[in-house]
Design brief:
The protein has 463 residues and is an alpha+beta fold. It contains 13 helices and 16 strands. The protein has helices at residues 6-14, 71-74, 125-129, 139-161, 207-217, 253-274, 276-285, 290-298, 307-319, 337-347, 398-408, 415-422, 435-443; strands spanning 2-3, 29-41, 45-51, 59-64, 82-91, 99-110, 165-166, 172-173, 201-202, 219-227, 240-249, 303-306, 352-358, 374-382, 386-393, 428-434. An 8-stranded mixed β-sheet has the order 7-10-11-16-15-14-13-12, sandwiched between helices. A 5-stranded mixed beta barrel has the order 2-3-4-6-5. The longest helix is centred in the N-terminal third of the chain and has 23 residues, at 139-161. The radius of gyration is 27 Å and the shape is elongated. The chain starts with a strand and ends in a 20-residue tail after the last helix.
Length: 463
């Protein structure tokens, strides 16, 4: 008798060429270990919906009073209980599932008490956030985390396949890459600089560090956690989240946007191919337009819209009666999520790059355009989320960059960053993908708290 994983059994059931009833696998004895999702019986025959964690789909375990010992005991196995099953694999091509297990023996491995909160009924996402240690067992969060795993693999597969090198950038840092001051400072004892010899914070971005590697390895990327001490309670903000930050040497803003578009399309296609059951679940239970929307992205070219033109569109929308919470539309403002969603959902009806932002609302490292008013920056806006990716061509000219850094007062401590422009610097560009927001977009989930395993948000760190 061999131990099997559920994903292996589904592979056998769907492999018509090598594993069929004719070659003897039908009736094979198998052993499984996993958990009870549901358990019901009609008095003489019982049915357990069983999941062992290796597959989104459940397996039906059929136990017959005439064929198993302790039928009464088995019929009382509770939802959530861990069990070991020995039985025969039975092809069921005419049923909803391609196979089932005819049980010979079922043993309890770990009991589940009566106060188990995940009974067979719908639970609100708000309720499930309070039991984050149990919610991976719920269908939605089971699917979310399977897609999260596949999406992370897609990121690495794409960039490794394109010759990028993965760089591990530090979590402790002495600089605020974005210049916004929204950092978590690190303290040991009474002094903030006692341990490291200077004030240190948790990283808000790996970009500045990874640029040093782009000047040696050409195309590189980071993929790791970042932190923002931002008092925001929106559905798309969290205090801890993961970022993907590629950096491309000998590249301008157009090259940057090409990589953004290609990498996102690759990731979407990868998830659709590797998580069909999960994606069908999201399309059925979360967003019935999801698959059509994602396929539309795959088959469309991302539009490009100048920031100045975007402002004109928003001003026109206000004139025509559209209600924005922030209706004071003017050139130089930072677009809010409601503005971004209006542009991508109502105007473009698909992904769009907003380019050439005013220099005063963007980071110091972005390349100044010839008009001296804007920088070579882009934000990719997508329906339902708003901004998904932010990128720019970096300022490679030493004098321009030093002047900007001197103006904002962050030159001290970042002399090494300026050195990159003195010693063999070249035009280069990069971008950052909020991994959790990308996961929201791919799954149709509406709140970042519901795609992170243990979300960290202002006023809430229960685990």
């Amino acid at each position: 008798m061999d131990k099997f994983l559920v994903r292996q059994l589904y592979a056998i059931a769907y492999d018509k060429k090598s594993k069929t009833a004719e070659n003897g696998f039908n009736g094979a004895e198998v052993a499984l270990e996993g958990w009870v999702r549901t358990n019901r019986n009609n008095g003489s025959i019982g049915f357990i919906e069983f999941n062992d964690g290796t597959c989104f789909k459940n397996v039906q375990i059929v136990y017959d009073q005439a064929k198993v010992k302790d039928f009464a005991k088995i019929s009382k196995l509770a939802t959530g209980e861990a069990i070991a099953v020995v039985g025969n694999f039975v092809f069921t091509p005419n049923a909803k599932q391609p196979f089932e297990i005819a049980a010979k023996e079922i043993k309890s491995i770990g009991t589940c008490l009566e106060d188990y909160p995940l009974q067979k009924k719908r639970h609100s996402f708000e309720f499930l956030r309070d039991i984050a240690h149990l919610r991976p067992r719920a269908n939605t969060f089971n699917a979310v985390n399977r897609v999260r795993n596949a999406l992370a693999m897609a990121i690495h597969t794409y960039f490794q396949g394109e010759g990028f090198m993965w760089v591990h950038t530090p979590i402790f840092t002495a600089n605020d890459a974005e210049g916004a001051g929204e950092t978590f400072n690190v303290y040991t004892g009474k002094s903030p600089d006692k341990f490291f010899g200077r004030p240190v914070c948790l990283t808000v971005s790996g970009q500045l560090h990874v640029e040093t590697f782009a000047m040696a390895f050409r195309d590189v990327y980071t993929f790791g956690p970042t932190f923002r001490a931002e008092e925001s309670h929106t559905t798309t903000h969290a205090s801890e989240f993961w970022m993907v930050e590629p950096e491309i040497a000998f590249a301008d803003l157009n090259d940057d946007m090409k990589v953004i578009e290609a990498s996102l399309k690759f990731c979407i296609d990868y998830v659709l191919k590797h998580c069909p059951d999960e994606m069908n679940f999201f399309n059925s239970m979360i967003d019935k337009t999801l698959l059509d929307r994602l396929k539309h992205v795959l088959n469309s070219e991302f539009k490009r819209l100048d920031y100045t033109d975007a402002i004109k569109l928003l001003e026109e929308a206000v004139k025509n009666g559209h209600k924005f919470e922030n209706k004071n539309i003017k050139w130089g403002m930072d677009l809010q999520t409601e503005h971004e969603r209006y542009i991508t959902e109502q105007v473009v009806k698909g992904p769009v790059f907003i380019i050439n932002y005013p220099k005063d609302i963007k980071a110091f490292y972005m390349r100044l355009n010839d008009d001296q008013k804007t920088v070579a920056a882009c934000d990719l806006l997508v329906p339902q989320i708003g901004e998904l990716v932010g990128g720019s061509q970096r300022e490679e000219r030493y004098d321009y960059l030093k002047k900007k850094m001197d103006e904002i007062g962050n030159t001290k401590g970042l002399e090494w960053y300026l050195d990159l422009r003195k010693y063999g610097g070249c035009p280069h560009a990069g971008f950052g993908i909020g991994f959790d927001r990308l996961l929201m977009y791919v799954t149709g989930m509406g709140n970042i708290r519901d795609v992170q395993p243990f979300p960290r948000t202002p006023g809430s760190v229960k685990y």
